[in-house]
Amino acid sequence: MVGITNSYFLEGRDLTLMIGSFGASAVLLYGAIRSPLAQPRNLLGGHILSALIGVASYNALHDHMWLAASVAVATAIAVMHVTRTLHPPGGATALIAVIGGESIHDAGYWYVLAPAGLGAVILLIVALLLNNIPKSRRYPEFWF
Fold first, then answer.
1. Quick check: 67 pLDDT over 70?
2. Contact between 140 and 125 (Cβ < 8 Å)
């Protein structure tokens, strides 16, 4: 659904909903649904907070990309722990905000809303639909 949304609404606009960290989120959301790391709070909080931290790190430290990348990921991990939103793909979301291409950097804080926030919401909606079809599965285990 993220790919379809990207294709129909953003193709040719130099914007994207497709970021690499969503592949890792998909593994958790569709393959490890009972993991605390796969729950909605972690998915949404992990991506959104990490995107915010990544953009802020890039803005503050872009002259030293190695430092901006390190600060983004380390700070994202710390904030996710403190807020109980640990979602490992969030670390990649923070890193992408720093090392991503021109379109990611040009997006600035919009990167937090799309692709990070909107893409995570789409992944969550699909997870809610698909993971509750079989009677043997229940998702989420908890919301907050």
1. yes
2. no
Query: Tokens representing 86?
Result: 């640990």
Sign of CA dihedral 94, 116, 129, 144: positive
Token pair of 35 as six digits: 């993991």
The structure's pTM equals 0.93
Q: Does 105 map to a domain?
A: yes
Number of domains in the chain: 1
Cα angle for residues 32, 45, 113 (degrees, 5° grid):
115
Is 56 contained in some domain? yes
Asked whether the predicted pLDDT for residue 12 surpasses 70, the reply is no
For 6, the domain range is: 2-131
- Position of tokens 């722990």? 81
Residues 23-38: tens digit of each pLDDT: 999 999 999 999 999 9
81/66 Cα distance (integer angstroms): 23
With respect to residue 80, please indicate whether it lies within any of the assigned structural domains: yes
In three-state secondary structure terms, 100 is: coil
- The C-alpha atoms of residue 8 and residue 88 are separated, in whole angstroms, by 29
